[in-house]
Backbone:
C-alpha cells in the first residue's frame, strides 16, 4: 500500500517525536558517566543530531588512562540511529600500506573486517582502503528495538570492536615490520 504525501509527513513527524524521546532518554542514561562527558551537536546541513560521548578508562593491562570516543547519530525523518566510533591509523602506516604487496593489503583488510562482521558491526575505510586514515566502526538501532539493554549492548560492541581493531592492527604492524627489516 502506497502512502500519500500527508501520511508520509505524519510518519516523519512521528519519527521525529520518537527521535527526541530517545535522544532525551539516552542523555538521561549518560548524564552520570564516570570520567566522561556528553556533548550534543546539531548538524543543520544534514538535518541531524549527534551526541559525542568521551570518557576515560583504565581497564587495560597497563592501567593507563585511555580516552574513548563514540557518537550517537540521529538523522531526522528516519526511524533508526547509529552508534559509531573511529580507529585512527598513524600517517606513516598509511604511507607504508600504499607500498605493500596486494597480498599483504588483502590479509590486513580481512584480518580487521572478519571480527567486526562476526560482531555484527559495520565498518567503513576513510577515505578508502588504499589511502586509509581511519576505520569507522558502527551499528544501527531501529526505534522499535530501542531499550536501555539494546543501547548499552550496542555501545559495548562498538567499543569492543575498537579494542579488537587496535590489538589486531598492532599485531599486524609488528609482523610486517619484522618482515621488512
Residues:
Amino acid at each position: 500500500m502506497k502512502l500519500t504525501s500527508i501520511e508520509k509527513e505524519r510518519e516523519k513527524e512521528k519519527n521525529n517525536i520518537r527521535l527526541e524521546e530517545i535522544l532525551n532518554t539516552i542523555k538521561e542514561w549518560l548524564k552520570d558517566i564516570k570520567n566522561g562527558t556528553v556533548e550534543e551537536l546539531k548538524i543543520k546541513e544534514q538535518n541531524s543530531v549527534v551526541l559525542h560521548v568521551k570518557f576515560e578508562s583504565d581497564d587495560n593491562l597497563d592501567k593507563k588512562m585511555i580516552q574513548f570516543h563514540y557518537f550517537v547519530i540521529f538523522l531526522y525523518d528516519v526511524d533508526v540511529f547509529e552508534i559509531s566510533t573511529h580507529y585512527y591509523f598513524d600517517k606513516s602506516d598509511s604511507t607504508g600500506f600504499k607500498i605493500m604487496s596486494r597480498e599483504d593489503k588483502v590479509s590486513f583488510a580481512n584480518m580487521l573486517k572478519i571480527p567486526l562482521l562476526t560482531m555484527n558491526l559495520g565498518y567503513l575505510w576513510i577515505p578508502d582502503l588504499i589511502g586509509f586514515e581511519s576505520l569507522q566502526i558502527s551499528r544501527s538501532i531501529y526505534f522499535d528495538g530501542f531499550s536501555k539493554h539494546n543501547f548499552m549492548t550496542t555501545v559495548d560492541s562498538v567499543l569492543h570492536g575498537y579494542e579488537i581493531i587496535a590489538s589486531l592492527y598492532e599485531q599486524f604492524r609488528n609482523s610486517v615490520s619484522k618482515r621488512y627489516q
